[in-house]
Design a protein that fits this description.
This protein is an alpha/beta fold and 414 residues long. The chain is 37% helix and 15% strand. The protein binds pyridoxal-5'-phosphate (PLP).
């Protein structure tokens, strides 16, 4: 009898069985993972973005192990917590105040609570087809759901005070504030990464954050996925967002569970005044904070541009390889996180993405790549994550894998 529901604790991380074989990871290191089939794979899922340094980064693991040995749960304040907050806020501008949490979902939950107390308002808006965690309030309207489609004539979806708005649609943002001038906040996933890395249209994020501020709403940047992935800081800051609060996770801990809520002193003082409830047995625990300190030290020494350039070259080479086989392929996103689409042109809106997305194609590509010892996320809207551990050899292995997959898919399509 299988006692573990679906064989894994998070539905989104399940891999399809191939020929009745359930793949399990035995270990992961650098850009690779090793399976229970005895094979080594070049990985592109990379903890769903939970590391920029590669799996099991030695310079992060060593201080984490030391923190564990000194006691993982000391109950009271410890030095690493303040050090981690200091390290994080060297990269986040006026968002200089930190509360550590364990997961991105918790961080978004606390961000929403904070915005409600700060403004005395209740309703919040977020992008249709984004993903802001799995807690009740935000767990609807994700990519692939019926609510995410938001046809222009339909009533704006709303659940438990959470409204949806259409990403990259300037006029929908204006309509939102005409219809609901009393929002507490807008949650901005700066790149619609969870819908397949749809990039923001020029000026869109600034327009939205300006509109929010003009109407007295706070701007929450949800950077759990994009934070520290394009540079050692927030993606939204590169893309024109003026945020009051931000959530980070994943890349700041190199795979050790940790997340944080960041905010301006003006907003975060509400916690000091005890006007907002916060708690968490494990929040800010020493191993998590050791991971943040060590990760940010490493990321601060890395040059993101060459990685992003190499990733962009890989995207372009793979698209050419598919074209050589007569197969349409395009890609959205950035060199360190991107999505492939079975189309000549990458989507610029969720409506376009939804019309191109093809679950069977994504699964076929995953199966073909797995045969080539390349591991990918198996579903439409999935992403390829590249890290500083993806060296030239790993990039070449990826290119070879995709070329072989393209050949196989072309033969199948013929
Ligand atoms: C943008 C975004 N926000 C929030 C979350 C939730 O984070 P967690 O899975 O750590 O709860 C995710 C997770 O993928 C995410 O991508």
């Amino acid at each position: 009898m299988n006692h573990l529901i679906g064989g894994i604790s998070s539905g989104g991380r399940a891999l399809p069985e191939i020929d009745g074989y359930a793949f399990k990871v035995e270990r992961s290191q650098g850009a690779c993972l090793w399976g229970n089939d005895g094979q080594q794979y070049v990985d592109t899922a990379m903890g769903f973005g939970a590391t920029m340094l590669g799996h099991a980064a030695p310079k992060v693991l060593a201080p984490v192990i030391q923190a564990l040995q000194r006691g993982p749960m000391p109950s009271f304040a410890h030095d690493l917590e303040a050090q981690a907050a200091h390290a994080l806020t060297q990269n986040t501008g006026k968002l200089s105040q930190v509360i550590f949490l364990n997961t991105g979902s918790e961080a978004v939950h606390l961000a929403c609570r904070t915005a409600r107390v700060a403004t005395g308002r209740q309703r919040i808006a977020r992008f249709a087809a984004s993903y802001d965690g799995w807690f009740d309030q935000v767990a609807f309207g994700n990519a692939g759901s019926s609510e995410a489609q938001m046809p222009p004539s339909a009533t704006r979806p709303e659940r438990e005070g959470m409204l949806l708005l259409r990403y990259n649609d300037f006029s929908d943002a204006e309509q939102l504030f005409r219809d609901c001038p009393d929002l507490a906040a807008v949650i901005i996933e700066p790149v619609l990464a969870n819908a397949g890395c749809i990039e923001p249209a020029s000026g869109y994020l600034k327009h939205l954050s300006d509109l929010a501020h003009q109407h007295g709403a706070l701007v929450i940047l949800d950077e759990v996925l994009m934070g520290f992935r394009l540079h050692a800081g927030l993606a939204g800051h590169l893309l024109g967002v003026d945020a009051d609060l931000a959530t980070v996770g994943k890349a700041i801990g190199s795979g050790i569970p940790v997340a944080a809520l960041l905010g301006t002193p003006e907003v975060m003082q509400l916690f000091e005044q005890k006007r907002i409830v916060r708690a968490g047995t494990y929040s800010g625990n020493p191993p998590a904070c050791a991971a943040v300190v060590a990760t940010l030290e490493q990321l601060g020494q890395r040059d993101y541009l060459p990685l992003i350039k190499r990733g962009n070259q890989l995207r372009s080479d793979i698209i050419h390889a598919f074209a050589d086989e007569g197969l349409a392929l395009s890609s959205s996103g950035y060199g360190s996180v991107f999505t492939f689409w079975p189309s000549d042109k990458a989507p610029e809106t969720y409506a376009e993405a939804a019309s191109i997305a093809n679950a069977q194609w994504s699964l076929d590509l995953h199966v073909a790549l797995r045969a080539e010892k390349v591991m990918t996320m198996p579903f439409a809207f999935g992403r390829v994550y590249l890290t500083f551990a993806h060296d030239e050899a790993a990039m070449q292995a990826l290119l070879n894998g995709y070329k072989a997959a393209a050949r196989g898919m072309a033969v199948k399509a013929a």
